[in-house]
Amino acid sequence: VFCCSYSHNVASKGKFIAFVSAQAESDNPEAELKPGIDLLGPVDELFFDTYDRYEPTNDPSSDNCFISTVSYK
Question: What GO biological process terms does the UniProt entry carry, in alphabetical order (predicted)?
């Protein structure tokens, strides 16, 4: 859970922007995020978005090519 507010110049005074994220392990990511969303209390608007996650298949110890894991929309 990440939260920022007016003091960060990203929301109206008295409002907050929060992100709840996780690596989905089922076909129902909304249910997986529910415990984190419940921590937020009342919510004005709620958006869900999913991204594919890619991981390198090379062996960095043999080719010295270190590739980060990346998520793409």
Answer: protein transport; small GTPase-mediated signal transduction; vesicle-mediated transport
What is the per-residue pLDDT for 40?
A: 92
SS (H, E, C) 42-62: CCCCCCCCCCEEECCCCCHHH
Domains in the chain, number: 1
Distance (Å, rounded) from C-alpha 43 to C-alpha 34? 13
Using CA atoms, how far apart are residues 54 and 52, in angstroms rounded to an integer? 7
Q: Can you give the pLDDT at residue 71?
A: 67
Q: What is the pTM of this model?
A: 0.65
Range of the domain at 11: 1-72
Q: To which H or E segment does residue 19 belong?
A: strand 16-19
